[in-house]
Every structure is written in structure tokens, then in C-alpha cells.
Write a structure and sequence with these properties.
alpha+beta, D-Maltodextrin-Binding Protein, domain 2, Immunoglobulin-like, five-stranded mixed sheet, five-stranded antiparallel sheet, elongated
């Protein structure tokens, strides 16, 4: 299909619509928060640090601002995602202080509207129907439904999915060309650079299914070759992040080799009542069986127009060339996947190699509601084509009956709209009746206007999902930045983490880096960045019931010597009482007040800040070593004076005790991301502990000569020092990742040039087509 200039205008208006809605809600409400939880805490600080390093001429391999040191390439946080960098450059030049990730999310939601519109137009939908589907795709499900919690996995990657569908259609209908293959590689490469490898696999899966169902036998072979070459380019572009993420998972306890716990697969199953949102967007119910999270039913879907689309597609799927059959099969498949425990045989499905580590069955809902959103556009196209038939009138009649029945059900409305429940319900019902009459007797243009307004109203109703997914404690931290002076090498220990901590995340620990002058901030999760899997910290052991209480924090940090090896300059304890932060706060504050090394320096409405006057050297000599084979918890590790002794991995075969350590000195310590340097002076051979995360890629040199390093105290770096005066340099240089990164970026730039050339030729060919 050929696009025309009107498509450019309509696509621009559709792109602006989410921006207007978001701006309106942000300016007129106090509750709206588009990005929360993981998106606010685990992505934003890492991305800002990465962009700052790139702008200073440094490739972002490592951040010393995060936890006790953290690699920047893994986990798809977008460290080297070019659109993020472009946003950072523009906002820096404009003097905007809004975090890069927030701006990028909003722009990608607009891109969701543009990409889905052009896809629907490509397959043959008229402008009005395509616009309705595009609005649904951009402001339902993947973009708004999950964005507040998992934006990097849904809002951004799903903006490129419709473009991937267009590429597949082109591969099936045209001869292979360099420009076409480059376009496919560019689309896939952006997904690989942004999405977690598991999310990339999920999007690859839906593309493979789409290709298989849309292909004709005589063209399938050529299409597979074209798609395979594009996939190869995408893999090369994203290879550095893929390997980096695999490496991170291999050195953390985030995902075990046995896969996720049975509890998660059961608890996060999508209950059938969830799909009530297809009919009635004001329904509210529990998301999980045992977690108090409320969802509005329309929060993941377009609303009634999606249901109309499904009904229309079921009626006319055999009488159209639109990919209705493909959508029906995909919707059915992903509907079954997201049922979780309600699907017979789910336990066997969950044991497959590529699926056993997929945490939540509910995450399959992203693909399902994306397809449903596209259904609303395709279905309206079919209804418009057959608008004068009796069947279409019957479809609307059935829909109105369903809507009326649901309105008398006992489901409670979304809290925000409870006072206006009947008024809004009446307006929604009236809009449906109006659509029926518009479809029956009015010009098509009026129907299109009504459908767009109807869908827009549904989208605005769906938006409160962002409020429900925004923990109150994160919102408090976001609105109360703190500033602490002093040595930037010291870290902040936040003793308010209540979620089971995980390596590479930790909602509070990442979030706090923005509020303490860019210093490293960590909660319990720092202790889980360990290579050894033989023990976990007490707060995360299976069956442990105390990790919700703060007695664990007291026993682990305040009654042991653990802080001596963490370089802690400040301890922060929240005072808030909420569903997320338990009510046991006073005991933790009292424990800090009675600690001999902690001095209260500031108390605000939400938290208390203590200064640690105890041992906090970034690098130091120790008297002796102990093997950590039998360690069972972080509290046990802290039973010894960690400023004088250290626990070391079993592979170490050197001396275990050292003499004259009192005369040994560390001086001129400097740390700048992946570069550490200092000087040592010792009369005899000694052992130095550096309180930076031990991770593959670190190299240590003594006077320019490489020396082996060891993992000490579960998470940190240590190595032997010969007697005398020495210059010590540590560098984080993951050689394989560096090679893959540069290869990927070169390929990305070449592909970008080819795509720009292709788009230039495409736009030059666009003409006004009055019949389209």
C-alpha cells in the first residue's frame, strides 16, 4: 500500500495525543506518575550515569555511583541505546532537568501510535479505523498498563513491534534488498539494545509466529532468508548487551538455575475476571491472589471497541485479506499463556528451558493486549466495510446487551471515579448507543470522529493504572531530594528496603542515588552481588519470615562489623508508615541512635540521617584471611572485625596471616567509574581489600605488572601486595564486551545510514492520493 501526505498529518496528530494527555494529567493532578518502581529506581540512575560518561568521552562500562560498583551494559537499561543518548543531548542543550528516561518513555509512547497507525494503514485499514487502533495501541496495555512498573520492557520495545510486522510483510511481498534487510536489522537492533534478552526473545517469538502464519509456501523460503539476515544484524548490534546480561545473571542470585519459584508462577497468574476489562473499563478487582494490588479492568485493554473488533473479526475473518486469522490465532495463544495456573499443563510449559526463568505469566498479557489493540482498528475497518448489513447491527446489539449486563454486576469502580460512577457509566453507554446510530445512518466521517472520541475517552479512563502502580515511598523520595556534603567516595546505606532484595535491582537503593549528590546508595541487595551461591543473606533465605521486619537489618548491619567493609558514610532510615514500609521503624531508629559509631545529623518528615564515624576506608590492609566455605549469612560474616580480617574464596592458596600490618599504609586513593588507583607502603607482604564490587573484567596492576585478584567478603576485591612502595591501578576492562560493543556500534551506524537513505527515497515518492 502507498501512503499519502494525509497519513503524515494524521500520524503527527496521533503522536501528539498521548503527549497532550500526559501533560494535562501531570499539570492538573497530584497522583499521576507515568514511571514508577523499577523504571524509576533501577533504570533512571544507571541511564543518567551512562549518558554523562558518554558525553564526557567515556564508554559506560562501569558505574561507581551505583551500589558498591555496578556494570552498566547489562539488563537492558538502555546504557548504549542511541535514542536515549539523543534525548539526553537535546534536553541538556535545552537546560531541562527531567530524567532522560522519563522523556524517552513519553516519546516512545508517541512512537507506539505512529508505528501502529502505519502498520494498520499498510495492511489496508482506512484512516479512521487505523487511527482508532493506533490510539488503543499507544495508550493501552504495553504502553500505559505496564509502563509504570516495567517501562524498559514494554513501552519502548513495543514501539518497534508494528514496524517489525511491516518488515515481515515486505519480506513476504518483495524481493530481498540491502535497504530492506538493513531496515529489519535496524528495528531488531534497537529492540536488542533496549530490551532485556528475555524480552527480545519474546518479541522474536511473536514475529516468528506472525511470519509463519502470514507466509505463502512459495515465498516463505526467501522471506526466511531476508528475516534471518536482519536478525543476524540485530544480534550483532545488541551482542554486547546480550552477553553482558547473561554474565550478570550468572554472577547474581536474581534467577536461579532451577528457574523461578512455583509461588511466582501461581501468584502472578492472570485470573479470568481480568478480561472483564474488555467489556467494562470501570471494573476493579485484585490483581494477585494474595497481594493487595487493585487494577481497573480497562487498564490493560482498549475497552469496548476492542471487543467490537474481536466480534467483527470473528464474523468476517474468512471474507477479507486483512490478517484477521493471524490476529485471532495469536490472541488465542497469548490468552492461554497469560492464564498461568489456570491453564492445564502449565507446569510442563513452565519447565521449558526458555520459559522456566520467565517470572510472571501475567507478563504475557503485553503481547495479548497489543494484539487486542490492533484488533480494534482491524475490526472497525471490517464494520465500516459492512456497515449497511444486518449482521453489523446485530453485533452492536449484542455488545450493548453485554455492556448493560456488566453494569449491574457487583464489581466496584476505580477509586478515582467512584463518586461519578453512574454518571460516567451513563456517558459510556450513551456513547455506545451514539456509535450505533452513527454507524447505521450517518456519513462515515461522523462515525470515524465518534469512534476516535470514544476510544480517547476509554484511554483516559485507563490511565489511573499508573497511580495504582506507584508505591507511596518512591513518590515520597521523588519529591524530597536530600543533599549531603563530604567525601564523595563514601556511600549511603539505606535501611528501609522491605522488598526481597535482588542483585541489579532494589527499588530503593537505585532510586536513592539521585538524592544524595550522586553517591553510591545501597540497601540489602548489595550483599547479593556475589559469585558464590552457597549462601544467601538471611533476609532472602527460602521460608525466612523476618525479611519484612527490621530486626534483620539490626542484626545484619548494626550488631555486626559489616559496615566496616561497605565504605558507609551515612545511614538513612525512613520514618514513613505505609503498606510498603512496615510499622517496625521506631526499633530501627532506636538501634541507630544507640550505635556507638552513628551520629544523627538530620531528621526530616520522612527520614532520619545518621553520620557513620566508624571505619570506612575504601582500601586497607588486613591481618588475616578466612575461607568463606561455611558462611551462611551476612550477619555471620560480620561477626569478625572486617577492618582487620576478611573472608576469601576457597580457590585462594596464599598466606592466611600477615605481620606488621600496623605499619602498612594506603594513600592517594582515587576512583572514577572503572578506574581505581592508590599507593601502598608495607614492610612485609600484605593483603589489601578494595571495597568495590568483584566482577569479571577487573584487572589489577602493581607498578604496571598484572597481579591476580580474589573475591573477598562475598562481594569485594582483594589481592596480595609485596613489601615496599607501590603504585596500584585497577581497571574494569571486559575485553570481549569491548570488542562486541565496537563491532555493534559500527554495524548500527552503517545500518542507520542505509535506513535514512531508504526513508528519504520513500518520502520523496509520497504523493497526495485522493482515493486513499
Amino acid at each position: 500500500m502507498k501512503f499519502n501526505r494525509r497519513d503524515i498529518i494524521v500520524a503527527s496528530l496521533l503522536a501528539a495525543f498521548p503527549l497532550v494527555v500526559i501533560a494535562y494529567l501531570k499539570l492538573t493532578t497530584s497522583w499521576f506518575q507515568l514511571v514508577a518502581d523499577d523504571g524509576l529506581s533501577s533504570v533512571t540512575p544507571l541511564l543518567e550515569d551512562s549518558c554523562r560518561q558518554i558525553m564526557s568521552g567515556r564508554i559506560p562500562w562501569w558505574s561507581h555511583h551505583t551500589l558498591c560498583g555496578f556494570p552498566l551494559l547489562p539488563r537492558g537499561c538502555g546504557s548504549i541505546f542511541p535514542p536515549h543518548l539523543l534525548v539526553y543531548i537535546i534536553k541538556s542543550l535545552a537546560g531541562v532537568t527531567t530524567p532522560t528516561f522519563f522523556i524517552s518513555i513519553v516519546l516512545h509512547i508517541s512512537l507506539c501510535a505512529v508505528s501502529s497507525y502505519f502498520y494498520l494503514r499498510y495492511i489496508g485499514c482506512r484512516i479512521g479505523a487505523a487511527a482508532v487502533g493506533a490510539l488503543g495501541y499507544s495508550m493501552a496495555g504495553p504502553a500505559f498498563g505496564f509502563a509504570a512498573n516495567w517501562p524498559r520492557d514494554y513501552s519502548i520495545p513495543f514501539a518497534y513491534l508494528p514496524f517489525a510486522f511491516i518488515f515481515i510483510e515486505e519480506a513476504l511481498n518483495r524481493r530481498p534488498s540491502i535497504g530492506l534487510i538493513a531496515a529489519g536489522g535496524f528495528i531488531g537492533g534497537n529492540i536488542m539494545l533496549m530490551a532485556h534478552p528475555q524480552m527480545s526473545f519474546k518479541l522474536l517469538l511473536i514475529c516468528v509466529l506472525y511470519l509463519g502464519m502470514r507466509s505463502r509456501r512459495r515465498k516463505l523460503k526467501i522471506a526466511i532468508i531476508t528475516c534471518a539476515l536482519a536478525l543476524l544484524i540485530a544480534l550483532v548490534i545488541g551482542s554486547a548487551q546480550i552477553f553482558a546480561t547473561i554474565e550478570l545473571l550468572d554472577h547474581s542470585l536474581r534467577v536461579s538455575s532451577q528457574g523461578v519459584a512455583e509461588y511466582e508462577r501461581i501468584s502472578f497468574s492472570l485470573r479470568p475476571i481480568f478480561f472483564l476489562g474488555l467489556i467494562f473499563p470501570f471494573a476493579q478487582f485484585d490483581w494477585l491472589d494474595d497481594v493487595f494490588v487493585q487494577f481497573p479492568g480497562g487498564g490493560l485493554f482498549v475497552g469496548p471497541l476492542a471487543l467490537l473488533g474481536i466480534i467483527a473479526c470473528l464474523r468476517y475473518w474468512h471474507r477479507t485479506k486483512l490478517p484477521v486469522g493471524t490476529f485471532l490465532v495469536l490472541a488465542g495463544l497469548y490468552f492461554l499463556l497469560c492464564l498461568g495456573k489456570y491453564l492445564p499443563g502449565e507446569s510442563y510449559l513452565g519447565s521449558l528451558p526458555l520459559l522456566k526463568n520467565f517470572r510472571y505469566p501475567i507478563r504475557w498479557t503485553a503481547e495479548f493486549c497489543a494484539i487486542i489493540a490492533l484488533f480494534s482498528g482491524v475490526g472497525l475497518e471490517l464494520l465500516l466495510r459492512h456497515r449497511h448489513t444486518r449482521v453489523v447491527k446485530m453485533i452492536f446489539a449484542v455488545f450493548l446487551v453485554c455492556l448493560g449486563l456488566v453494569m449491574v454486576m457487583s464489581s466496584s469502580p476505580v477509586t478515582l471515579f467512584s463518586d461519578y460512577y453512574w454518571l460516567i457509566s451513563f456517558c459510556w453507554f450513551g456513547a455506545a448507543v451514539l456509535l450505533w446510530f452513527l454507524l447505521r445512518s450517518s456519513p462515515v466521517l461522523y462515525f470515524i470522529y465518534g469512534a476516535i472520541l470514544f476510544t480517547a475517552a476509554g484511554m483516559i479512563v485507563n490511565i489511573p493504572i499508573a497511580k495504582i502502580l506507584s508505591p507511596s515511598d518512591l513518590k515520597i523520595l521523588w519529591h524530597q531530594p536530600l543533599s549531603i556534603g563530604g567525601d564523595s567516595l563514601e556511600r549511603v546505606l539505606f535501611l528501609g528496603t522491605t522488598d526481597p532484595p535482588v542483585a541489579g535491582e532494589g527499588n530503593f537503593s537505585f532510586n536513592m542515588t539521585h538524592y544524595f549528590g550522586g553517591r553510591s546508595v545501597f540497601g540489602y541487595d548489595s550483599l547479593r552481588m556475589e559469585v558464590q551461591r552457597k549462601w544467601k543473606d538471611a533476609i532472602s533465605q527460602s521460608g525466612e519470615t523476618e525479611f519484612w521486619l527490621f530486626q534483620t537489618a539490626i542484626n545484619t548491619f548494626l550488631k555486626t562489623h559489616l559496615m566496616e567493609t561497605l565504605r558507609v558514610g551515612w545511614v538513612v532510615v525512613p520514618k514513613v508508615r505505609s503498606s510498603v514500609i512496615p510499622k517496625a521503624q521506631p526499633s530501627l531508629i532506636d538501634a541507630c541512635l544507640s550505635h556507638p559509631d552513628l551520629e544523627k545529623i538530620k531528621e526530616g518528615k520522612w527520614m532520619v540521617i545518621f553520620r557513620n564515624n566508624g571505619f570506612k576506608s575504601p582500601a586497607f590492609f588486613i591481618r588475616g584471611l578466612r575461607y568463606d566455605n561455611d558462611l551462611k549469612s551476612g550477619a555471620e560474616m560480620g561477626e569478625v572485625e572486617l577492618s582487620k580480617y576478611a573472608w576469601i574464596e576457597p580457590d585462594y592458596r596464599g598466606d592466611m596471616n600477615f605481620i606488621n600490618t600496623e605499619a602498612s599504609r594506603v594513600s592517594d586513593f582515587s576512583e572514577e567509574h572503572g578506574n581505581i588507583s592508590f599507593k601502598t607502603q608495607a614492610e612485609d607482604e600484605g593483603f589489601v581489600v578494595v571495597t568495590t564490587t568483584y566482577y569479571p573484567g577487573w584487572e589489577a596492576r602493581i607498578n604496571g605488572k598484572e597481579t591476580p585478584i580474589y573475591r573477598v567478603n562475598s562481594s569485594f576485591i582483594g589481592f596480595l601486595i609485596p613489601p615496599g612502595k607501590h603504585d596500584i591501578v585497577l581497571e574494569f576492562r571486559p575485553k570481549l564486551l569491548i570488542v562486541l560493543f565496537y563491532i555493534g556500534m559500527i554495524v548500527y551506524l552503517v545500518v542507520l545510514v542505509l535506513v535514512v537513505r531508504l526513508l528519504y527515497r520513500l518520502f520523496r515518492s509520497i504523493k497526495i492520493d485522493p482515493d486513499n
